Amino acid sequence: MLDKKHIGHKFNAFTTVVEAGKIRLFCKAIGEEDAIYQDEAAAKAAGYRAIPAPPTYLTAVTNDDPDKGGLLKLLNVDIGLILHGEQHYEYLAPVHAGDRITCQSQVMDIYDKKGGALWFVVSETSLTDAATGKAVARARGVTVVRNPDAAKK
Question: What is the pLDDT of residues 59-71, one digit of tens each?
């Protein structure tokens, strides 16, 4: 059983640099072949100030957290009990190679379903351009935690 006292918990903010090489590797992994994600000249010719980050790349940005596994540590949950439930992004401004992005995550809600067999942890991450202080995106995710004791009832 998860403790709802963690609702509202803010994790340590961290700042990471969006790197062109990581964007290229990410695009290779997802099969994105558009030249704007590979070549700065192609990106600039298309009107970008640098190589743009594809929308789903923000997941890689949030995964640069130096406190890996912070949510699981906070909840004292084994990684074998979790499932990725949902992920939503609200895009507010473009992100490009060279940008420094600050991420701040917070637990927004914790609730259960199926009589406590499944717990849902809703978290939200604000992504901000460190140079301007302006928000570039908000990420909202749901982590599902299986209750190993539910099968014993």
Answer: 999 988 888 788 8
